[in-house]
Amino acid sequence: MQMQKLKGIISRREGRILVVTSDKGAVDYRFNAAELADAETGERVDLLISASEDPDGVSTILMVKSKKKIKPLKMGNFNTLVGHMIKTRDRLNATIAEIADPDAVSDLREKISWLDRGINLFS
What we know:
alpha+beta; CATH 2.40.50.140; 30% strand; 123 residues; 2 domains; 2 helices
C-alpha cells in the first residue's frame, strides 16, 4: 500500500465514482463517492490516499485534510476614525459659512448629517 498526498480538483462524477484530477501531472484518480459525500464538482481537495495499482481502479482515501478556516476580520480601534469624522464635520461646517450657493449648502448639510450618524454609531 503506497501512501501519497493528492491535491487537486474534483473534475467529474461517474455514477458512484468521483474523479479527482491532480495538480501535478494532470493524473486522474478515482474514488468511491461515499468517501467524499459532501464534495461538489469543481471543488479543491487535499487528500492522503492509497493509489490503486490499476490506472482505472478505485483508489482509497486515507485522510481528508480539513480546509483552513477563514479568520474573521479584526475590529480596529474606532477612535481614529471618529476623530477624522469630527474634523471633517467641523471643516464642512466652516465651509457652509463661506458658501452662498444653496445647492452646495444642502449637499454639505447632507454630508454633515451622514457624518453625525457615523460619529454616533462609532462613539
